[in-house]
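User: Need the bound-state model for pyridoxal-5'-phosphate:
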Amino acid sequence: MTISKRVQNINPSQTLAITGQALKMKQEGKKVISFAAGEPDFGTPENIKEKAISAIREGFSHYTVSSGIIELKEAILEKLKQDNKIKYKTSEIMVSNGAKQCLFNAILTICNPGDQVLLPTPCWVSYTEQIKFAGAIPIFVNTYQEEDFKLSAAQVEEKITSGTKLLILNSPNNPTGAVYEQEELIKIAQLLLKYNIYCICDEIYEKLIYDNVKHFSLASLSDEIKENIITINGVSKSYAMTGWRIGYAAGPEEIIKGMSKIQGHSTSNPNSIAQKASVEALNGKQDTIEEMRKAFDERRKYMVRRLNEIEGISCLTPAGAFYAFPNVSKILERGIEYSGKKISNSFDLSNFILKEAEVALIPGSAFEAEGYLRLSYAASLEDIKEGLDRIEKILRF
Ligand SMILES: Cc1ncc(COP(=O)(O)O)c(C=O)c1O
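Assistant: Bound-state model below.
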């Protein structure tokens, strides 16, 4: 008996391997500092928690409509209209257990086995595996530090074939923090229309953006382009609600219907209590986002400055999200000796930093980008300072 080929084909998460090791070291009493987190270190705002408690007390504990309660869909509609200037109908919206499930539903709905999906790298770990799970083929399009890790329309066009079905754009980006500007997106949109390609716009970090950079939603460009776009967002990052598991998708009715069918047969509906809490997140006061964003901004500047002060590291200042993505290729070229061998890749370097500095971070290879590391600044300034002191010490020539 063997497990299915589909599952054999999926790679285990490198992120989980590192965070698992860090947890083990913590349990052994070591003072591990973690820059591995993919979530805000803030708590969910009180007004949101209160609405969840009321929902429990009022007995809102049954299955809901598979694609989400109407109250939440209306809150999402309003949010997309106000913040993103995109007008949808409720039949074009669905709610899932996290943006991750929305992405999974969307990729399975759009892709046939053998279809090609253009994936700009560095990219978030789960896209690749979800594409493979659907039997589709990830086609990596590399972006470069010298170009602020942004994809040009020419690069996209070069990779388009008759088998290209979908492009995945993530802005602000995890892990690079890159944010696409309107003009850059317009050029990409023209290609989507010319070659009739769908595009998933993952906008989960939309609210965490710095230096007066403006977020632009591709679907807001025109009614025509809207037919090719599935906009994905959620409450996880903006409202510090990662554990609540609520994400949403907006797109053409036919795609949303397909996605709802999959969800109806897999997880039924998103958690009922969390849906009520998310209505409050979207409709209630928004000032906690700004408090969190300001704290991230301060940490971002500090972390990037400290990283650039380490010999052999160069780090762009990310425009969004909460990650720094330093280039460590000069350190790898230097070939630090550790455990009888030379460290020549980002995974071994992360392991070295974890063991010797007791700082957890994620290797660039997890994001299809060798020669880089990802450090989350969703940690206290005190921890960021201490963690960077430790890293600096062990990487010194
Ligand atoms: C780029 C990106 N998209 C989607 C998600 C998933 O978010 P959710 O918690 O809503 O499933 C994450 C989480 O790390 C992410 O980094």
